[in-house]
Design brief:
Strand 7 (269-270), helix 13 and strand 8 (298-299) form a beta-alpha-beta unit. By secondary structure, the protein is α/β, with parallel strands linked by helices. A seven-stranded parallel beta sheet has the order 11-12-10-13-14-9-15. 47% of the residues lie in helices and 12% in strands. It is globular and about 75 Å long. It has 27 helices and 15 strands.
């Protein structure tokens, strides 16, 4: 298919100039970006170009498209992976722990945030919880400034808490030798601003999903521009849905204030969605107050009509049965399960527990998007991962802390004793092994004895592992790790995760690399399985699906009471524009159980329609039971 006139203008962009592309959903922005880079590579072979996006999911789709084009010289990445690469290749410049150790989700949520919360409480900040620490971490990732002028940050309300957090976090990260994923862009921005960094000749950089970036991300790019790199931003402020990490539409809208004299391009012809779906999405987003004027998103010539429906069911159980039958009907019409998604506003597991049994009853394969993180939280797997980490560095503080955390009879006071025993420039893991086996000053005898036994046993295990010349099967390091765990202690999901990632990660890169890739690659592989996916709207962003069903599209859940009206409208817009051929919004008249407590708690009381659909000609919902009955004949 030849490029549209809008795409041709972008492909001809002058690489000596910054640029901004306002690209509606499904308008072929990825294809256009790749075509531009191919043209620059052919016309200017000396020019070093790059392609970044925000999420790994978006990067994964770019990798597939690049492979289909045969452009093996182009390796896309995320903003965070780009920042990490800069920091690793320039050790000793920015003040961060080296070697770089990134904690995974479990280590962050179960070890780091609870510890920081307890430290802040001990300093007099009595109401601090792990959720508070999570909020402070997100604000820190944006250098304590939101792009949304209407958002008042927690740090602005409680500056003393912010300062205490910075002190506790800095001390802790040095003592335990880790670097948070959230801080990577900010640290890399400092690196480029303060030092003459070798950028490997980078001259032109395309940044996709620009509306998802926060202040620190954009500062990193601005510092690159100061070094002569030209930036082409591609994004859609209508799809800005990361307010929780301090991103906002203003980041893209004010691009010309940061990057001098950019060229401006629209992409407004929808190549993905059917006409009815695009019409519904455009109508919804056009009700957004103070939205800048732009060309309307329209369907391409010859586009399919597509189905857009809004269905009401009597209860949440009836909704779940109806959704499962809608999915079964799409599969019966030849749609692959991987091209169908069930979307929810938040708390994926709750909705998966509701609709999952109905899908199982119809023999429909499915998974929820959070299963990898839940699997990596299993005790037996966590223990095995910590021991494997110690084979790479027997003083790995997070790994040793994990073993203490997972072992019964070792108190929090004992872990504090280890922290307080650290000498100048000594990591917690080094202090633990220095104090072992005496622990003479430990606060309690049971903890001391349990910890001594634990360390003795696990160090003996580590010392007995010889990785030189180890023989690996087709499951690589995943298979090696599975065989080291006592039979029957790993769940089927854990077995599956280790095996699949072990096959995907090259074994020659070593065990340490495998351990670092287990969570991100596991999520990447899960997204490719031929199953129906249950996921949040945020997670679905960037995906192209044949069919999408948004559950809980009713007052009290959509819009969410804790959300802002503008972003809730943009979330709905993102959800609708995932689907090519079939988009259903579903609601329940009454709810009981967990889904009744989403958003505004309303147990077994009548629920109204989603107010964000008022502008739609089909804003009236249909009877879901009759719709499904007419569709399936059952």
């Amino acid at each position: 298919m030849p490029p549209t006139q809008q795409q041709q203008q972008i492909i001809a962009h002058d690489h000596n100039r910054h640029g901004r592309v306002i690209a509606g959903p499904g308008t072929g922005k990825s294809w256009t970006a790749i075509a531009l880079l191919r043209r620059l590579h052919d016309d200017h072979p000396e020019l070093v170009v790059g392609l970044l996006t925000f999420t790994r999911a978006a990067t994964g789709e770019l990798v597939v498209k690049i492979a289909n084009e045969g452009l093996d010289w182009l390796a896309p990445g995320t903003i965070h992976s780009f920042a990490l690469r800069l920091l690793i290749h320039n050790p000793g410049t920015v003040a961060i722990p080296h070697p770089v150790r990134l904690p995974d989700t479990w280590e962050t949520e179960e070890l780091i945030r609870p510890y920081l919360a307890s430290q802040l409480r001990s300093q007099g900040h009595a109401v601090v919880t792990t959720r508070t620490v999570d909020s402070l971490e997100r604000e820190m990732s944006a250098r304590w400034e939101s792009l949304d002028p209407n958002l008042i940050t927690l740090a602005a309300i409680h500056p003393l808490l912010r300062n205490a957090y910075i002190g506790a976090w800095n001390s802790h990260r040095w003592r335990y030798g880790y670097l948070l994923l959230a801080e990577l862009p900010s640290r890399a921005g400092d690196l480029i601003a303060d030092f003459d960094v070798d950028l490997d000749g980078l001259g032109f950089l395309i940044v996709d999903e620009f509306q998802d970036l926060n202040k620190a991300d954009i500062r990193l790019l601005a510092n690159l521009a100061e070094k002569g790199v030209k930036i082409l931003a591609i994004g859609d402020d209508d799809q800005s849905i990361y307010r929780f990490r301090m991103a906002a539409p203003e980041g893209l809208r004010q691009f010309e204030q940061t990057f001098d004299d950019p060229a401006e391009y629209p992409l407004s012809v929808g190549l993905r969605c059917g006409r009815n779906i695009i019409e519904a999405a455009s109508t919804v987003i056009e009700t957004l107050p103070n939205r800048p004027a732009r060309p309307r998103l329209t369907a391409k010539d010859g586009a399919v009509n597509g189905d857009f429906v809004y269905l009401r069911f009597s209860t949440q159980n009836a909704e779940a049965r109806g959704v499962a039958r809608l999915v079964a009907d799409r599969i019966a019409k030849g749609v692959e399960p991987r091209s169908i998604a069930i979307l929810v506003r938040s708390q994926v597991k709750t909705w998966a527990d509701l609709v999952g049994p109905e899908l199982t009853r119809l023999n429909i394969p499915f998974m929820d998007a959070d299963w990898v993180e839940r699997t990596l939280a299993e005790r037996a797997l966590r223990f095995a991962l910590a021991v494997a980490r110690l084979t790479q560095d027997r003083t790995d503080s997070l790994a040793l802390w994990t073993l203490l955390q997972l072992t019964n009879g070792i108190s929090a006071a004992f872990r504090s004793y280890i922290d307080q025993s650290c000498q100048d420039n000594e990591r917690a893991g080094q202090a633990l092994l220095r104090l072992y086996p005496a622990f003479t000053d430990a606060p309690t005898v049971p903890s001391r004895e349990n910890a001594r036994r634990l360390i003795m046993e696990q160090l003996a295990v580590v010392d007995g592992i010889n990785l030189n010349g180890v023989q690996l099967d087709e499951e690589g390091w995943g298979g090696w790790l599975r065989r080291r765990v006592p039979a029957g202690t790993l769940s089927p999901d854990a077995d599956k995760l280790l095996a699949s990632v072990g096959r995907a990660v090259p074994p020659d890169d070593g065990l340490g690399h495998f351990l670092g890739q287990l969570e991100p690659v596991g999520k990447d592989l899960a997204a490719k399985e031929n199953v129906v996916r249950i996921m949040s709207i945020t997670t679905s962003k960037g995906l192209t699906l044949d069919s999408a069903i948004l559950m809980g599209c009713e007052a009290g859940i959509m819009p969410h009471p804790r959300g802002t009206p503008d972003e809730e409208l943009r979330l709905l817009y993102v959800a609708i524009t995932r689907a090519v051929n079939f988009m259903a919004l579903t609601a329940a008249v009454r709810r009981t159980g967990p889904t009744a407590r989403h958003g505004s708690e309303n147990v077994n009381q009548p629920r109204g329609r989603c107010p964000m659909l008022d502008a739609l000609p089909i804003g009236e919902w249909q009877d879901g039971r009759l719709y499904v009955q007419n569709l399936t004949g059952a």
